Model the fold of this input.
Amino acid sequence: MEALLAIVIGVLGGSGIWLVLRPRTFQVVMGLTLLSYAVNLFIFCVGSLAIDKPPLVRAGVATTLENYTDPMPQALVLTAIVIGFATTALFLVVLLASRGLSGTDHVDGTREEEP
Amino acid sequence: MTLAPSHLIVAPVVLPLVTATILVLLGDANRRAKGVVNIGAALVGVLIALALLSRVDGPGAGVYLASNWEAPYGIVLVADALSTLMLALASVVALCVAVYSEARWARTGTYFHALFQVQLMGLNGAFLTGDLFNLFVFFELMLAASYGLQLHGSGWPRVRSGLHYIAVNLLASSLFLIGLAIIYGITGTLSMADIARRLPLVAAGDRGLLHAGMAVLAVAFLIKAAIWPLNAWLVPTYAAASAPVAALFALMTKVGLYVIVRLWTLFFSDPGPSSHFGAPVLVVAGLMTLSFGTLGLISSMQLRRVAGYSIIVSSGTLLFAVGIGKASVTAAALFYLLTATCSVSALFLLVELMERIGGDTRPQRRADREVDEDTNLDDDETPLVGRAFPLSLALLGIGFMTCSVLVAGLPPLSGFIAKLALLRSVLGFDTDAASAGPVPAVWWFLGLLLTSGLAATITLARSGIRHFWRKDGASAPQVKVLEAVSVCTLILCGVGLTVNAERVLHYTNAAAAGLHSPAGYIDAVFATLPRPGPTRPDLEPAP
Done:
């Protein structure tokens, strides 16, 4: 499962970086979104991966990490998702303003030369 | 411990939050009231920061346990000497910016005041927090507000540079989270003091990963601190932003530097396998940033860009000083940080006023009296004697000259004292220990710092000549009292730092000594116990 998750994070992150480096603002937004998915998954898995171990205390089960998964990364990832979502939404607004002012979706607002 | 002093630590975060809420609720209707609330809150912020500053004694840290949870389980706010110093700096600059913006810029948009207060909350929180994830949240608050402020006034240059600015900062936030996650994965904690305590216990096999995490985290801060080659976003963004916003943004690069100083002294001061990790990188990057800023200074013709590049120069200087990692150098660097921030903020405000100096299109007013043969004539055969010289122009000229002396670091003002203290400490003249002598990097630093001062002098003098000594006759710019007062206050802060240099350097020496022996900080955080109360009835009252 670790290998699968690592590959998923790698593919998401790699695609994100490639898209961020593209010259179109929409591609940059998609790239940043994919990158934030990769980062969120990464935060989620730092507390070590475990199946059938909820981060909630159950009656009669000793409160050690043997029986539970680490709740901290889950709290962190929740905050990171909310903040990432808000800033991406804000970025979209600026993107639309840039599109309206320049008439193109190039990140520098310059039209490419016709071939 | 009484109730008031410890709660004062959280006030710099709560006050802007409450003020921002009030400002949003006031809506668009009552602009005068909003201006008064904004300036009032900024003024109270200065008083709080000064009160905290007067309570800090030496390396001891005031610790505030949020929600009465002890470290490392709860989030702590730590007001030590460095944090309070940064708080005081931020609050003074913020007050001047608030007063300045009231003259004109605050009327351009509805939510300027609210965004301003949220930005202030993010700044103060980032200076106070003792927890890495909380630092991330305050960083994002500060950045989210800064995106709105940067676009304040709208227009294509702002939107274009804002797009780049936001994209770069979103990437930096991703790096921040990656670094933070790696560090949590290894140390199992996010409290800075706890990480510092556990660092020596990290297994040798995990140390490489830990260093990688620290490096990724550092890149996120170094992007904010405008390190070369990650600073291409800075100059266009700051040059496009409206004057008060740019002056406030001068503080934001210092947040990146503050975090680097805080974390690096806390984690890597003590001898051990991780001691001085990454210091050579900081030294070399600092020198490169300094060179880049110097070249930028010489090559810019617009005064706004000159101000942007002088931020990069001060960042390079400070990064080098952090990389050296000696208490005496850090002390001098903190003094340099104070004077550089005040003077660059003042410069950003002055730039806008100077851009209002227009060529005089009205016919020149000839003196009534006859022109004698020996009268001093200018190019247009107009007598130079007896021509009215506008007061605002004179004030602006004096202000610009003083500000240039501060930015370029010429004697006798505090910029010079700061550079002298820095050079003295990096060259090792302040210690009588017979050391092996300065390393080559220090000689490079000496040369580059002096060259950057020369470059700043040349480029600022050139801009001054172009703005004030115009051939077509400089007409008096419209300068409002509020604007003049705020710019004068910032410049007088620089002058005040000159007069009180010894006291301030004494303070920064104590702060740096506290930073370079992090045990005091760590002990202060863990020695603070929660109080018995409704949420913690099981606790015994403190003796």
User: Anything to note?
Assistant: The radius of gyration of chain A is 20 Å.
